Amino acid sequence: MSRVCDLSFRVPRASFQSAWRDLRMTFLSIEFGSEAYREECELRHRVLRVPIGLSLYDEDLSRESGQMHFGLFAERKLVACAIAVAISSTEAKIRQMAVSQGTQRQGCGRKLLQALERELAARGFRHFSLNARVVAAGFYEKLGYTRTGPEFTEVGLPHVKMEKRLAS
Ligand SMILES: CC(C)(COP(=O)(O)OP(=O)(O)OC[C@H]1O[C@@H](n2cnc3c(N)ncnc32)[C@H](O)[C@@H]1OP(=O)(O)O)[C@@H](O)C(=O)NCCC(=O)NCCS
User: Fold this and answer.
1) The pTM is what?
2) What is the 3-state secondary structure (H, E, C) of 99-160?
3) Which of 23, 43, 48, 159 could bridge 74 with an S-S bond, Cβ 3.0-4.6 Å?
4) Residue to probe by mutation, ligand 1, list 70, 105, 155, 162, most atoms within 8 Å of CB
5) For residues 101, 102, 104 and 106, what is the CA-based torsion angle, rounded to 10 degrees?
6) 92-104 pLDDT, tens per residue?
7) Tens of pLDDT along 65-113?
8) Cα of 109 to ligand 1 centre, how many Å?
9) β 91-99/152-154 pair status
């Protein structure tokens, strides 16, 4: 696990349960195969697979060794994660975005995606694409993403392609 940036923000008091008040969040890159990667897989398993009756561990995760992994940590505990895949030198596809169930709708997803976009922009990416679950499309729209195609089914759920392009 390596430090990318310290977001230096404090979660708004009003929107957090007492246990989460004033915890400082840190955005970090995660090394494939590390202990933090195992924590990332567990978060993705719990948030993205268990609720739809699937297991992340039934999937071939070896291809993820060449992908970019990031997490938002509160006091060393992973609360949100996402993966970015280089499609070209300027386009990155964002996948597997997940916020732990106890901290959803409290600003962590926004903080993670904004930090991820800044990190990807620093690496030269100007175009971000993703397959959004339709139930989460409103979240991405709030972050400036637009729908780019019709709905389709993935892991048994309706999805839609979305993208965001940075001004050059
Ligand atoms: C979708 C998800 C990543 C959003 O992260 P989050 O931390 O809950 O979202 P935030 O609190 O940062 O929300 C930012 C804004 O998006 C809105 N938002 C969050 N989830 C939303 C949703 N599912 N639909 C519509 N709007 C949503 C919030 O209300 C907030 O709006 P505001 O700024 O007007 O208050 C998270 O809820 C999650 O992991 N959900 C389960 C797994 C999932 O669906 N992952 C995405 C797969 S494509």
Assistant:
1) 0.90
2) ECHHHCCCCHHHHHHHHHHHHHHHCCCCEEEEEEEHHHHHHHHHCCCEECCCCEEECCEEEE
3) 23
4) 105
5) -170
6) 999 999 999 999 9
7) 999 999 999 989 999 999 999 999 999 999 999 999 999 999 999 999 9
8) 6
9) unpaired
